[in-house]
Amino acid sequence: MKKWATSEIRQTFLDYFQRKDHMLVASSSLIPANDPTLFFTNAGMVQFKSVFLGKEKRKYTRAVTVQRCMRASGKHNDLENVGYTTRHHTFFEMLGNFSFGDYFKREAIHYAWEFLTKELGINSQKLWITVHEKDDEAEKLWQEEFKKNNAYPQGLSHCGDKDNFWAMGETGPCGYCSEIFYDHGQQFQGKPPGGEDDGERYVEIWNLVFMQFERGLDGKLIPLPKPSIDTGMGLERIAAVMQGVHDNYATDTFVELHDKFINVLKGQFGITA
Fold it and tell me: CB-based burial of residue 185 (10 Å sphere; 0-12 exposed, 13-18 middle, 19+ buried)?
């Protein structure tokens, strides 16, 4: 498998989904507009929240974005993991494709599998899928996709709400999800997704969220006007996969930043490290 530059992965993702009739939408601000429930934009779907809730209609029903995100507060807070793992960041880029009442589970699963195994050329045996234990439909669609392409994953696990029910926050759009993990190899500790000892071996690279509900302040789930799709793939994580490293900080983007930082220190302070 060839090594891909981070910029090449980003552009390939955008090109792929634009060929699938997705509108290219620019990243929104890190400070969410008109959303008092969030300090920072923590996912690609934030700028589409009102669309998912049926309160706003756009001129398109499919979208693709590369969203700049920060997870330093709220429900999705990665701050405590930064520095302790090789895959967490406060700031990162999220690749995402979205459907607003257009396509649903079948197409979302097909696009994800085709992009990873054909566009990027990842060996399907390096991938592991998780589905919600109650989402029989998603599992059936995955099995059909594997058979159609004669490309089967290393495994598939059933998980509960903790791992496979996604919500942006305590309230708002939510639904079952299906996650795709990459196996970095047995030289790293960790058991397959779905167990207690996840370790560092299997790293989540893409989350397909099947938006079906809105959770109210009372915790009740109300069906959305039209089922929709929200997916998110960490650019830094897939870059690590495509560059053959386990550490996000060893990818080209971070190495370049590190080298420039060292050069500045050498020039201004005479540091030789």
Answer: exposed
End-to-end Cα, the chain, rounded Å:
34
Mean pLDDT of 143-172: 92
What is the set of domains in the chain, with CATH numbers?
A: 6-269 (3.30.930.10)
CA distances in angstroms from 63 to 17, 132, 194, listed in the order given? 8, 25, 30
Q: What is the pLDDT of residues 256-265, one digit of tens each?
A: 887 887 888 7
Q: Which helix (H) or strand (E) holds 237?
A: helix 235-242
Say if CB 173 and CB 52 are below 8 A apart.
Answer: yes
Phi/psi of residue 72, each to 5°?
-130, 15
Is residue 171 scored above 90 in pLDDT? no
Question: What is the signed CA dihedral for 233, 105, 117, 254, rounded to 10 degrees?
Answer: 0
Angle CA(137)–CA(142)–CA(144) in degrees, nearest 5?
A: 95
Distance of CA 132 to the CA centre of its chain: 17
Residues in the chain, overall count: 273
pLDDT by residue (tens digit) across 74-117? Answer: 555 555 666 556 666 678 899 999 999 999 999 999 999 999 99
Residue (of 104, 98, 116) closest to 231 by Cα position: 98
User: Can you give the pTM of this predicted structure?
Assistant: 0.89
For range 29-40, the mean pLDDT: 82
Residue type (1 letter), 68: R
SS3 163: helix
37: closest CA among 196, 171, 195? Answer: 171
